[in-house]
Amino acid sequence: MKKVIKNGTIVTATDTYQADVLIENGKISCIGQNLAVGGAEVIDAKGRYIFPGGIDPHTHLEMPFGGTVSKDDFETGTIAAAFGGTTTVIDFCLTNKGEPLKNAIQTWHAKSKDKAVIDYGFHLMIGEMNEDVLEELPVVMDEEGITSFKVFMAYKNVFQADDGTLFRTLVAAKELGGLVMVHAENGDVIEYLINEALEKGNTDPIYHALTRPPEVEGEATGRAAQLTGLANSQLYVVHVSCAEAVEKITEARRKGYDVWGETCPQYLVLDQTYLEKPDFEGAKYVWSPPLREKWHQDVLWNALKNGDLQTLGSDQCSFDFNGQKDLGKGDFTKIPNGGPIIEDRVSILFSEGVKKGRITLNQFVDIMSTRNAKLFGLYPQKGTIAVGTDADLVVFDPNVERTISANTHHMAADYNPFEGIQVTGEAVTVLSRGEFVIRDKQFVGTLGQGQYLKRAKYQSKPTETGKSQELTI
Ligand code: URP
Ligand code: ZN
Ligand code: ZN
Ligand code: ZN
């Protein structure tokens, strides 16, 4: 059935204007003033913004990690994402050394099919680079539309790859048109610092942060950026948490390297003192990289504002406090890393960013949606509001005030790291390809309505000066 969103204010990465949006066959078919739309179902957006659906470029749904499996799966995770105003997620498909890539991809299809309520794609982890992998990569790109690869520089003896693997992945990505993503922390140095802490009997959650200082993130970020320049390739640094890493990304971009950086809501709002909460509660705030001293938050916000960082991912990887996080009682290295963020990513950016004057409304749309679509081969099908694009739309009330809480969130995890934080703004109605997923704050979607997205190859590239182009696109 035809739908029309009336009386709202459309916001894209570049424009803010009042118009009606007509939706037919899952696409936006017309945008204009006072559209005559006999027979269309009317969605009244008076006093509300209409945003392109959020694109979360970084999730780990139902992922085996740290001796357990992340709590939110493609069902609860995508429902919660939709409640928060996100209509696309790109999840990390983990691979196993020595096994064909296609096995891992099949495993991820099996996890997501018949569950996801919004559209989704996969990034592929590269744990080793050899002839078999090199042979399979072009097939994966063409047949599966997986055009971004993730290399972990940390998690020694689990996911960590060596510099040779990173470099060969960068070279291959350059040739094939892929984007290389890195978890940038120096895993070898972390291992040393962890052993030193444990030998001294330092086992509390705070030592998670103290054994992963900003220098190990800055060093790995700089190394990955240099190798990218050497390979003349392209790099996306996930979950940037600190000034040291921002500095390396900024420096690389100034040199004209094709390097991009993502941060996450937790690093913008929470700080290292949360790891010191009593009764093991600090475990709720264990991420890698860890939460930092508060002053880093200003650096991250400024970087988003200036374009030195370009995107916001949730790094959704949730674990219950009771029964999962507590695996690390008495040994911080056994605390599963990650948290439930997928639902609050857009709200936190809007409330802490736009409402507090740190970024503009159009930058907000770019950071939470448009830029992600462009970088990950989904633009313009996703990530904007224009005739012919998917009707992935969020009707957003910019004035409602609410308090984030596990009592009201839709994620499966038993706590919310933003518990008690006041935010302004909330998604009211969310459409995925023209179908209601959330209607007047109620879930009305169907499991499996989300479609798998085959993504295009990597295209965008900054100009020589890197940053200036970001301001003009
Ligand atoms: O602590 C985190 N970030 N958990 C998820 C896995 C990863 O490293 O992104
Ligand atoms: Zn028209
Ligand atoms: Zn990571
Ligand atoms: Zn992650």
TrEMBL record:
Keyword Metal-binding recorded: yes
EC number(s) per entry: 3.5.2.2
Top-level class of the enzyme under EC nomenclature: hydrolase
Keywords: Hydrolase, Metal-binding
Chain ranges of the Amidohydrolase-related domain: 49-437
Entry-linked CDD domains: D-HYD
Listed Pfam families: Amidohydro_1
Keyword Ion transport recorded: no
GO molecular function: dihydropyrimidinase activity
Needed co-factor(s): Zn(2+)
UniProt family annotation: Belongs to the metallo-dependent hydrolases superfamily. Hydantoinase/dihydropyrimidinase family.
UniProt protein name: Dihydropyrimidinase
